[in-house]
Specification:
The protein is an alpha+beta fold and about 80 residues long. It has one domain. This is AP2-like integrase N-terminal domain-containing protein.
């Protein structure tokens, strides 16, 4: 069974890759649709696994759009160099 959400495309170097754009529901705070696009998968199977992870993360509440990398990086810097 082929997943219609997964699209095949050609990269500039000629390689074939896969991408998807999925709907994950509504943002409870803003009421806007939450859509996620991911690109660069080597196979359909890899893209399907990524979709499954995103959907299960939304269901159990563990999906985080942008983890705050700056805070984590600064904390690591402070712990390693300032202490």
């Amino acid at each position: 069974m082929e997943d219609k959400r997964i699209k095949k495309y050609k990269k500039n170097n000629g390689d074939t890759a896969y991408m998807f754009n999925i709907y994950l529901g509504k943002n409870p705070l803003t009421g806007k649709d939450k859509r996620v696009t991911r690109r660069g998968f080597v196979s359909r199977r890899e893209a399907r696994l990524a979709i499954a992870r995103l959907e299960s993360g939304m269901e159990n509440g563990s999906y985080v759009k942008n983890p705050d990398i700056k805070v984590r990086t600064n904390l690591t810097f402070n712990l390693n160099y300032l202490i």
